[in-house]
Design a protein that fits this description.
The structure is a homodimer. Chain A is mostly helical. Chain A folds into two domains: about 70 residues, Tetracycline Repressor, domain 2; about 110 residues, Tetracycline Repressor, domain 2, CATH 1.10.357. Chain A contains ten helices and no strands. The longest helix of chain A is centred in the C-terminal third of the chain and has 28 residues. Chain A is elongated and about 65 Å long. The N terminus of chain A is likely disordered. Chains A and B meet through helix 7, helix 8, helix 9 and helix 10 of A and helix 7, helix 8, helix 9 and helix 10 of B. Chains A, B: Keywords: DNA-binding, Transcription, Transcription regulation. Chains A, B: This is TetR family transcriptional regulator.
């Protein structure tokens, strides 16, 4: 492990706790992904940028896909946090707008689309995607939607995981098969359609 | 064109019209895709099975992806036709059930998922996907939804293309990122959620 004596790791106060080193690596990876995408993300480069040995990186993340997904999740976590103003309509619109911005205005959309794309023929990457990204995003959305159910704003019998597919899944659909654009009108229509229903006779 | 004398092409009544030959090729491709997927679909094999020269095949379809998408579209077109009973709820449920069955019970789901996957890094395939498959599926769904708008069953101000993302797009989301399964309960929930709305206070 030739790099453990480098400043980034020691900073004059001995070996840093693994959690702190790990968080540093994830921050580095997240910055690279959002700024430029995943094409030039390599273990070599992450080792150089973070001052952590490749051996350690491989111990924590068995593949580039796993490293990218973990870094990406942590990079977008604050931006994609669910507001809780008590108004589920306003909170869904705010969160979906933030999500749409990450997808269309940073390299995030391309990074995720390529990882989802590769995961169709790479079972290990598919597992990493679900474990390190999508299952946790589903859990967080589900929590906010269940709070709205307890507040009587969403009907109790609704399966909130289906709502995830009809809001965020609908955005992924336009990202992966770009027949139609992801616009602010689209985000608003998703929320209003689903909360109010589209039926002409209710 | 060494194969033009083969029985499949001539059948004793001279050169067949190009439309008929083309339809034969698409039928052959569709059968292979739904039965076994796209892994062993090659121009060589399609030429052999259909009795059409590779030169002709390449003239009509510039890539394996284009050939697969055109064959797939035609193979599923009858199954995915939109019923028009006059009841949009029943018709959407019937069509989405048929779609879910093709996706989960034939090789169709895997074929589409892999083509969508590859198209994230292959711009020509992405264009072929939209031109030969998704834009036309969107158009057909849009037509049925607009008929429902004219009948007063869907509100006139609803953008029917957003509905496409919230029904079929939601199914694609579960196919491409399989955190949750595509079940009959899921299909029913998609339609009821969207037609009736999920809000607790309407």
């Amino acid at each position: 492990m030739p790099m453990t004596n480098q400043p980034a790791v020691r900073r004059g106060r001995g070996r840093r706790p693994a959690d702190e080193v790990r968080a540093d690596v994830l921050r580095t990876v997240g910055e690279v992904l959002l700024a430029e995408g995943s094409a030039d993300l390599t273990f070599e480069r992450v080792a150089r940028l973070s001052g952590v040995s490749k051996t350690t990186l491989y111990k924590w993340w068995p593949s580039k896909g796993a490293l990218a997904l973990d870094g990406y999740f942590h990079a977008v976590e604050p931006t994609l946090a669910f507001p809780e103003t008590g108004d589920i309509r306003a909170d869904l619109i705010a969160q979906l707008r933030a999500f749409a911005r990450v997808m269309t205005e940073t390299s995030g959309g391309k990074v995720l689309a390529e990882l989802i794309g590769q995961s169709q023929t790479d079972p290990d990457l598919a597992t990493a995607y679900r474990t390190l990204y999508s299952a946790e995003r589903r859990r967080l959305a589900g929590e906010r939607l269940q709070a709205a159910q307890r507040a009587g704003q969403i009907r109790a019998e609704v399966d909130v995981q289906v709502v995830v597919d009809q809001l965020w899944g609908a955005v992924y659909h336009r990202l992966l098969i770009p027949d139609e654009p992801v616009t602010d009108e689209f985000v608003l229509a998703l929320v209003h359609n689903l909360l109010d229903g589209i039926s002409g006779r209710s």
